[in-house]
């Protein structure tokens, strides 16, 4: 099946074998793509069904009648709109906060020489090794002390400061040539000007990569919001979905409507910024 | 920077580091230290913490739930890692054949990766529904009576593994694809001139030259799979009869349901140690199979 790997070789293969090979490859690809897409179509199809057509055997793949009733009922029974807003609000603030705090620290590490920077940076790297489950219990206790259970700051702030983000941006900032900023500094520009006017614009690809991953990480996060939020009104979509499922166990059209609402915005972000997702995975193996 | 006065420079350094450093100190560093301290205490959050020395570790040794959670986590890893690596590699090799529409397929395969685990877990819980799910419907079409999946202690973990492999194929595949694209075409051309067959080229060129990527993907997948939680929590909650109880689920239950803060912290450090040992072990093994030019 790996008969010919290069484009140039393909031409020397006789027509029939070439076609057979292409057909074989496309079959594999089509099967795997279907395997990925069909479950999502099933999600959508279930969400568009009327109650009495959900639990049927054989399953109905094309809903007849097609109805948006489960979305409407979901909005009536459950503060799904509010949860959508919470998810968006938390994800946007987390992303902006992470970009700002990480890029500022990365600027100091990559562009300023100061005593102790090596040790401090090692400390950043060391925290990367500790899985988030280690800190989650004390963090939860800390939130109780601060009175931040069931608050936006409790949802947002612990996710804003990222050693990983600082590391990623520092590595990128190190590759930016120094001539521009040296000239600017000699001309009397402040470090803030250099950071804001030179480094950030030149660091856009890295910022975008970090941005999409911190947005995705926050939008999809489950464990921390599960710990810190109890009120329906403050839940983000994933925790809300888990609660929804707990309440209406067999109402799969309602639950699937909830999952569609959760998945679609992230899908849009992904389709718009696909290159940055690929870059992030390849560079660092992050998964959000 | 040459003409800058020392004091002014340090003011700037502090200014740039302050947000990140104070935030990480408060939300990461102090919790890490507190978590270490918690391992020697018992604390139910209602009464003051009580120092118990190594009591939590003694409890751990006799805790059946811990050992079964460890066993299930290893079961998950042993099922998940080979499947996701082999399938992702296969798809990546096909996608690397420089045929039309590669980006379209890559996009499709990556969609589960960006979807929230909670949504994916709910979707597959529905798909694996014993009576009305598509999996058992399809099995029924070829005359097989499907199991009760998530409700059957024997089949619950395989169902979770299948779901996890489905979600992560795209993630691992993108890493492999990047690695494959880094292999110079000249190697294959030389091999083709020597008359090496497709399989031999794969075995003797692709696999060795890809090994650094394979190693990277393996380490990342291993670290992630020790921390398996969201899908378990949603799909089975650790059940049925504890058949899918895993380490992080035990941490959450101890902290959350039983209010055993010290014990939960102890479990989390054991998890860290296990990840650390597994990673170090892989690092050690890599000398035997990873080739760097």
Indicate the structural class of chain B: mainly alpha
Strand content of chain A: under 5%
Looking at CATH, the homologous superfamily of the largest domain in chain B is: MetI-like
Terminal residue distance of chain B: 39 Å
**CATH third-level topology of the largest domain in chain A:** MetI-like fold
Residue-averaged pLDDT of chain A, rounded? 89
Provide the number of structural domains of chain B.
2
In CATH, the topology of the largest domain in chain B is named MetI-like fold
Q: Provide the residue-averaged pLDDT of chain B.
A: 91
- Integer tally of domains of chain A: 2
CATH class term of the largest domain in chain B: Mainly Alpha
**Can you say what the CATH homologous superfamily of the largest domain in chain A is?**
MetI-like
Please, what is the oligomeric state?
heterodimer
Largest sheet of chain A: none
What letter string, H or E per element, gives the SSE order of chain B? HEEHHHHHHHHHHH
Characterize the overall form of chain A: globular
- Shape summary of chain B: globular
| Largest sheet strand order of chain B | 1-2
Radius of gyration of chain B equals 24 Å
The CATH C-level name of the largest domain in chain A is: Mainly Alpha
Report on this model:
- The complex is a heterodimer of chains A (288) and B (293).
- By secondary structure, chain A is mainly alpha-helical.
- Chain A has two domains: 7-72, no CATH class; 77-284, MetI-like fold, CATH 1.10.3720.
- In chain A, 74% of the residues lie in helices and 0% in strands.
- Chain A has helices at 7-10, 15-47, 69-77, 80-111, 117-129, 132-146, 152-160, 163-174, 179-186, 191-202, 204-220, 223-228, 237-247, 252-272, 274-284.
- In chain A, helix 2 (15-47) crosses helix 14 (252-272) and helix 3 (69-77) packs across helix 14.
- With 293 residues, chain B is mostly helical.
- Chain B folds into two domains: 6-38, no CATH class; 55-289, MetI-like fold (Orthogonal Bundle), CATH 1.10.3720.
- The longest helix of chain B has 33 residues, at 6-38.
- At the A-B interface, helix 1, helix 2, helix 4, helix 5 and helix 6 of A face helix 1, helix 3, helix 4, helix 5 and helix 7 of B.
């Amino acid at each position: 099946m790996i008969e010919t790997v290069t484009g140039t070789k393909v031409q020397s293969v006789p027509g029939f074998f070439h076609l057979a090979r292409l057909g074989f490859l496309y079959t594999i690809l089509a099967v795997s793509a279907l395997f990925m897409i069909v479950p999502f179509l099933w999600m959508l199809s279930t969400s568009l069904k009327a109650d009495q057509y959900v639990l049927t055997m054989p399953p109905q793949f094309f809903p007849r009648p097609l109805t948006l009733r489960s979305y409407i009922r979901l909005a009536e029974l459950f503060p799904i709109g509010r949860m959508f807003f919470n998810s968006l609000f938390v994800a946007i603030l987390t992303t902006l906060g992470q970009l700002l705090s990480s890029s500022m620290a990365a600027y100091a590490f990559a562009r300023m020489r100061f005593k102790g920077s090596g040790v401090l940076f090692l400390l950043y790297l060391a925290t990367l090794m500790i899985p988030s489950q280690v800190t989650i219990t004390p963090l939860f206790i800390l939130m109780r002390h601060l009175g931040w259970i069931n608050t936006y700051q409790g949802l947002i702030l612990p996710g804003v400061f990222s050693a990983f983000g600082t590391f990623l941006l520092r590595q990128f900032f190190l590759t930016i040539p120094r001539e521009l900023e040296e000239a600017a500094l000699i001309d009397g520009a402040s470090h803030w000007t250099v950071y804001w006017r030179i480094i950030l614009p030149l660091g856009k690809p890295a910022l975008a990569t970090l941005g999409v991953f911190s947005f995705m990480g926050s939008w999809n996060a489950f464990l921390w919001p599960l710990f810190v939020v109890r009120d329906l009104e403050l839940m983000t979509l994933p925790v809300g979905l888990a609660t929804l499922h707990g309440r209406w166990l067999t109402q799969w059209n309602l639950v699937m409507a909830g999952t569609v609402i959760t998945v679609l915005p992230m899908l849009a972000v992904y389709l718009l910024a696909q290159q940055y997702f690929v870059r992030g995975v390849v560079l660092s193996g992050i998964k959000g | 920077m040459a003409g800058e006065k020392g004091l002014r420079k340090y003011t700037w350094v502090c200014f740039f580091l302050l947000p990140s450093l104070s935030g990480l100190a408060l939300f990461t560093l102090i919790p890490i230290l507190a978590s270490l301290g918690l391992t020697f205490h018992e604390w139910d959050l209602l009464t003051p913490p009580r120092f118990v020395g190594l009591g939590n570790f003694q409890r751990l040794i006799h805790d059946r739930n811990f050992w079964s959670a460890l066993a299930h986590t290893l079961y998950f890893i042993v099922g998940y890692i080979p499947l996701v690596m082999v399938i992702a590699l296969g798809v990546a090799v096909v996608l690397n054949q420089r045929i039309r529409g590669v980006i379209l397929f890559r996009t499709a395969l990556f969609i589960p990766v960006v979807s929230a685990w909670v949504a994916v877990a709910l979707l597959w819980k529905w798909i694996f529904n014993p009576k009305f799910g598509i999996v058992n419907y399809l099995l029924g079409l070829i005359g097989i009576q499907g199991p009760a999946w998530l409700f059957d202690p024997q089949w619950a973990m395989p169902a979770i593994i299948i779901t996890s492999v489905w979600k992560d194929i795209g993630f691992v595949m993108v890493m492999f694809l990047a690695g494959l694209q880094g292999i110079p075409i000249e190697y294959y051309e030389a091999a083709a001139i020597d008359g090496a067959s497709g399989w031999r080229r794969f075995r003797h060129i692709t696999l060795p030259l890809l090994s650094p990527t394979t190693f990277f993907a393996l380490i990342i997948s291993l670290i992630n799979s020790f921390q398996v939680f969201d899908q378990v929590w949603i799909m089975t909650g650790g059940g049925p009869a504890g058949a899918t109880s895993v380490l992080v689920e035990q941490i959450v239950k101890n902290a959350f349901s039983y209010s055993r803060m010290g014990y939960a912290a102890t479990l989390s450090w054991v998890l860290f140690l296990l990840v650390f040992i597994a990673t170090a072990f892989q690092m050690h093994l890599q000398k035997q199979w990873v080739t760097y030019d």
